[in-house]
Specification:
The chain is mainly beta. The protein is built from no helices and 34 strands. The protein has two domains: about 220 residues, no CATH class; about 210 residues, no CATH class.
């Protein structure tokens, strides 16, 4: 294994969903052909349960969080283990009473849990803004991964559920049954610090909640064989013709995917060093988006500038992807429409193993994305250019790993009806050994590849 000099705690993305409505036995798959579990990985299982039942776990899982709100309306339980490669699937959890359950498995390929086990702090309350507690890691300052997770009673989801500064995350309800359901929300970032206070997240209304802040000690990076997003940065640009977008942390050899969109439909002029992935596409006369990419060689600097033929507000989302096949360029497609739900774009690829499916869209106006299809294991990024109804645009990007020949965005719901354009792309798997110290110039942050190979909850299904 070749180690980066800055340390890493790499988590990989998630897939799939199952229902556990009002049962005492809850079955959770923990491996698949998309991203199998192998020995040495750090496994976290996050569980939200309606009510306050006792949860019986299989042996071999170490308890990290087991907390209930003051009114016994919702419980958050988190356990972890270092995989031995022989984990039984499905894993079965038993609750002492009939309840709905939402759970998510999170897997870290690189970690330092054998040196310093994960640590956590918890808090409870009743409000629309779960307040994550401050946590100081016993091992001190390092490039630690900080996870902010909350469970909430009810099924009301927020369009902006994660604390500020946490670029990766997921948000889902156990079902649509407000009387019996619960919400599980997870986000994370990696930053050099001994202490972290994530601040507040959000749920869709005032309700009881349990929140936890978790610290994971970093490990080392090595051979990457499944492509994944390692960092993402968003930039909202004020009205103008020059739009300067900030690059994420990346290593030489990473694939940089740049999505840029505007209110209205000016002509885009891109840097010549970028290759077209999604053609510049207008959503009627009200919004426009295009996607470009390049393989990083270390000369990129820290920004990318896109110019527009007219003065407009803009949004940029740039993702750094590691583990792609440099000999096989990504491919994608785009579609447009109007309404509150984006639909109808699909990409077909050959059978080459677990691919990274990346997608997103743009909507006219300040219309945040309230729900997204389970293509998005994580809502990587969502931002508005401003709050101006007359001039704003809103963009989203998400991704998943999946061993399938075709994948696309089925539906993403916005908070209001508008003109939109939606795109999907496939990034093919390769095998890249990242040499020591290959961090892009001027970028010293190392962000985890947050890989959540199994999602076990009921995402809010969109009804047409």
């Amino acid at each position: 294994m070749t180690a980066l000099d800055f340390g890493f705690a790499r988590a990989l993305p998630a897939f799939g969903s199952v229902t556990t409505p009002n049962n005492t036995s809850h079955s959770i798959a923990i491996s698949s052909a998309d991203i199998p579990i192998v020995a040495g990985q750090l496994l976290f299982l996050f569980v939200a349960v309606d009510g306050a039942p006792t949860i019986t776990w299989p042996s071999g899982w170490t308890s990290l969080v087991d907390a209930t709100d003051a009114g016994s309306n919702v419980k958050l339980s988190v356990r972890w283990r270092i995989a031995d490669g022989g984990e039984a699937t499905p894993l079965t959890l038993t609750t002492s009473s009939t309840q709905e359950l939402a759970a998510r498995l999170v897997v870290f390929e690189a970690h330092g849990a054998s040196t310093y086990p994960p640590e956590a702090a918890t808090a409870t309350g009743s409000s629309a803004t779960p307040d994550y507690p401050s946590l100081t890691a016993s091992w001190g300052s390092d490039k630690n991964v900080w996870i902010a997770v909350h469970a909430a009673d009810g099924v009301a989801l927020s369009a902006t559920p994660h604390p500020t500064g946490y670029p990766f995350g997921t948000n889902a309800a156990s079902s649509a049954d407000a009387g019996n359901g619960c919400v599980l929300t997870i986000a994370r970032k990696q930053v050099t610090a001994a202490t972290e206070n994530p601040g507040a997240g959000a749920i869709g209304g005032v309700n009881e909640w349990v929140a936890a802040t978790i610290a994971v000690y970093p490990g080392t990076e090595g051979t990457v064989t499944v492509p994944r997003v390692v960092d993402v940065v968003t930039t909202a640009t004020a009205s103008g013709t020059s739009h300067v977008l900030t690059l994420p942390a990346y290593a030489v050899g990473d694939l940089l995917v740049v999505a840029f969109g505007t209110d209205d439909v000016p002509t885009f002029t891109w840097p010549v060093t970028l290759t077209q992935l999604i053609a510049d596409t207008a959503a009627a006369a009200n919004a426009k988006i295009g996607v470009r990419y390049r393989v990083a060689d270390g000369t990129e600097g820290s920004t990318v500038t896109v110019t527009t033929s007219a003065s407009e507000e803009g949004t940029g989302i740039i993702a750094a992807v590691r583990g792609h096949d440099p000999a096989r360029p990504p491919t994608g497609s785009v579609t447009t429409g109007s309404g509150q739900v984006m639909t109808g774009v699909n990409v077909t690829a050959g059978s080459v193993g677990s691919r990274l499916w990346l997608g997103g869209g743009i909507g006219n106006g300040p219309v945040l994305f309230a729900e997204w299809h389970n293509m998005f294991q994580e809502q990587v990024a969502s931002l508005q250019s401003s709050a101006s109804a007359a001039n704003a645009c809103t963009q989203l990007m998400g991704y998943r790993n999946r061993n399938a020949d075709a994948q696309g965005i089925v539906s993403m719901r916005m908070t209001a009806s508008t003109q939109w354009a939606a795109w999907s792309a496939v990034i093919y798997p390769g095998s890249i050994v990242v040499p020591p110290g290959t961090v892009a110039p001027g970028r010293t942050r190392a962000h985890p590849h947050f890989y959540r190979p199994n999602v076990h909850y009921i995402p809010r299904r969109i009804r047409h």
